[in-house]
Specification:
The protein is α/β, with parallel strands linked by helices. Helices cover 45% and strands 13% of the residues. α10 crosses α12 and α10 packs parallel to α13. The chain is globular. Bound molecules: nicotinamide-adenine-dinucleotide.
């Protein structure tokens, strides 16, 4: 099958393009970012993503994967048009759908009649109505929300926990047909087990995505709330979470206290779900509480640093790790960065270490060091994030338990 992947230079687009090409489809990836297109065409992956480089090289060598900045070249003649562009939060916190609508409009103008548009981007249910109006009757439309985790995009393409797809039966079946090797567990990179597929209508599929991310965010805020209570009463948080996780109704995964949830998905999706709910007249006190808890955790981190470092004003702090989580170079909406900003605003001199973030993506105004040791940068406080855990020469007694401060 011939596929166009719009937004192929991003995490979701690249996973889709490389994954589908590895399955033998003819894939043309299109991205507005000429630099990313150049890099990818040369076999270079523009972000930290384990496992992608090898598959990219194989697909480029096999000749069934290409990248372009020209939507016509990619979309004309394609049987499927995957939309994987960004949907960041707009200024008012609601999702900015301009990339999706712009990409869909450009693709629809040159797509072959009968092509199926597959939406991987996270968009609110109502956006599908706008997309259907824009596309008219000549094309199929399927919601195929993405659940991949950054740092694990290859694993999650070939071994998804489950797939959720929404739309007309024939169009859904056609899209799932592209993935039959994965669905039946037959691909060498798969588990060998069939994958559960939830087939539903478009609004339901869109809501599953928002509900999943909002739940994960809520769980993080819950864990952080328990951490704060444990600290206040002298209980041991590690033991509390270990014991909680042993209850199969609760489970241990994603129940870790830290500095709060961040990144390019959870904050905007929990805001997006609240916006959907408000539009439908539904109150969402749990979601609002999870967001409030996230801000409270940032205040708590500041207070902890102040207590441990004997005040903030004029002190120097070394932040080890500024990405939003392990195994990624992505700093979008990173809480580590937000905390660094808070500490600087409170009068600390902040120095940060993170070898995974390339110089051209380093946040403006944040002092960078290549040394992960507090002694070398003369810091009186140390925030140990994921880069810190990996760093050689970690001091013996960090002020924070790395387990607690992991973001
Ligand atoms: N990053 C994740 O972990 C993740 C996981 C699941 C779902 N999602 C969702 O998937 C979507 C994409 O996220 P991402 O993190 O991959 O985004 P990203 O910002 O990494 O990538 C988006 C890409 O789209 C390109 N682009 C924008 N407009 C374009 C256009 N008109 N034509 C061609 N290219 C265009 C950009 O240049 C960029 O390379 C979002 O809706 C996000 O919420 C992301």
């Amino acid at each position: 099958m011939r596929l166009a992947v719009v937004g192929a230079g991003g995490y979701v687009g690249l996973a889709t393009a490389v994954g589908m090409a590895t399955l033998g489809h003819e894939v043309a990836g299109v991205d507005l970012d000429a630099q990313k297109v150049r890099e990818l065409s040369l076999g270079r992956v523009p972000m930290t993503e384990p496992g992608v480089t090898g598959l990219l090289a194989e697909a480029l060598a096999a000749g069934n994967l290409s990248f372009t900045t020209d939507p016509t070249a990619a979309v004309d003649g394609a049987d499927f048009v995957f939309l994987a562009v960004g949907t960041p939060a707009g200024a008012d916190g609601t999702p900015d759908l301009s990339q999706v609508m712009g990409a869909a409009k450009a693709a629809a103008a040159v797509a072959t009649p009968g092509a199926v548009f597959v939406v991987k981007s996270t968009v609110p249910p109502a956006a599908y109505g706008d997309l259907a109006d824009l596309l008219g009757d000549g094309f199929g439309l399927v919601a195929f929300p993405e659940f991949l985790r950054e740092g694990k995009i290859v694993e999650d393409f070939f071994r998804p926990f489950r797939l959720v797809v929404g739309g007309e039966e024939a169009a859904m079946a056609a899209v799932l047909g592209l993935l039959s090797e994965v669905l039946e567990g037959r691909h060498p990179l798969s588990t060998g087990e069939p994958v559960t597929v939830v087939k539903t209508d478009i609004p339901t599929a869109a809501l599953v995505k928002y509900a999943a991310n909002s739940y994960l965010a809520t769980r993080v805020s819950y864990a952080n709330e328990v951490l704060r209570v444990a600290g206040a009463i002298g209980a041991d948080p590690k033991t509390v979470f270990t014991a909680l996780g042993l209850d199969p109704r609760i489970g241990s995964r994603y129940l870790r206290a830290g500095i709060g949830f961040g990144g390019p998905c959870l904050p905007k999706d929990i805001a997006g779900l609240q916006d959907v709910a408000a539009g439908a007249g539904c109150a969402t006190p749990v979601l609002a509480g999870a967001e409030a808890g996230n801000l409270e955790q940032r205040r708590w981190v500041l207070a902890q640093v102040g207590e441990l470092a004997g005040g903030l004003q004029g002190k120097r702090v070394l932040v080890l790790g500024i990405t939003f989580k392990p195994d990624t170079s992505d700093t979008r909406d990173s809480v580590a960065l937000a905390v660094a900003t808070d500490l600087a605003a409170a009068g600390m001199e902040v120095v940060a270490y993170d070898p995974s973030v390339p110089a051209h993506e380093w946040p403006i105004g944040l002092q960078r060091t290549e040394s992960p040791t507090a002694e070398k940068v003369d810091a009186s406080a140390l925030l140990v994030g994921d880069a810190g855990l990996l760093a050689k020469g970690l001091p013996e007694a960090p002020l924070f338990d790395p387990w607690q401060i992991r973001g």
